[in-house]
Amino acid sequence: MSTGYQGFGDKALPFLKALGFHQNRDWFHDNKELFEEHLNEPRGRLIDDLAARLAESNIPLTCNRKSSTFRINRDIRFAKQKHPYNTHVSAVITRSGTKKDQGLLYFHVSPGDCFLSVGFYAMEPDELRAFRDAIVTRRTMFDTALEPLIDLGYVFDQENSLKRTPRGFEQITDPETLALIRLRHLTLSRPFAEERLEGSILLDDLTELAEAAQPFLSFGWRVLDPVRAARNEKQP
């Protein structure tokens, strides 16, 4: 029996859909074996195989089962909605393999909402300001770095985009540049059909994304790494 990634189980999406209706610990406990067999273990195998592929290709990204995955249990301490379980499984791929590292790939598996993402999410204010400055001053380089992702059908996420131009960029008049600097997260996404959860297709998609993302991620790292280094030097 193969121990490599061979797709998510055929009960993966039905389980997540049912979990949306049965948001209680007793139901989850009774059906935990389904979660492990059809979702959690396949996700772990996907991460293991992807990490190996990235290392073989010398791509400066990695992932592992412990630090790259998000728990099925929700943190409801400060949440308005108190249901205890997420109805999706997901993971990030970063330089360190941890969730706090900037410059990531992300996959999200949920009934009717499967997608891949890449970019820089929830940056600190000084990081976001530096990234916006870089977009304005190095626009041609920025556009060139994006081309491989655009060619694959990835588009910028507009969620939480600012309605007004951020302070310090009032002189910008170009509509495309304005749209970019109003983004709060510099991430691009592409949905994928649920059929791609079968076999090793999703592993191939993530490998393709990792390769195409290198120019964009490298652009962002060159911007953000000095900002983070300067901030760390100031800390006692």
Strand and helix map with partners:
Layout: H1 12-21, H2 25-30, H3 32-56, E1 89-93, E2 104-109, E3 115-120, H4 125-137, H5 139-151, E4 155-156, H6 175-181, E5 186-191, H7 201-234
Antiparallel strand pairs: 1-2, 2-3, 3-5, 4-5
Helix pairs in contact: 3-7, 4-7, 5-7
What's a quick, concise take on this entry?
The chain is of the alpha+beta class and 236 residues long. The chain has 7 helices and 5 strands.
Describe this structure in words.
Helix 3 (32-56) crosses helix 7 and helix 4 (125-137) packs across helix 7 (201-234). The chain has a five-stranded antiparallel beta sheet with strand order 1-2-3-5-4, with helices on one face. It contains seven helices and five strands; from the N terminus they run H-H-H-E-E-E-H-H-E-H-E-H. The protein is globular and about 60 Å long. It has one domain (12-227): BirA Bifunctional Protein, domain 2, CATH 3.30.930. The protein has helices at residues 12-21, 25-30, 32-56, 125-137, 139-151, 175-181, 201-234; strands at residues 89-93, 104-109, 115-120, 155-156, 186-191. The chain is an alpha+beta fold and 236 residues long.
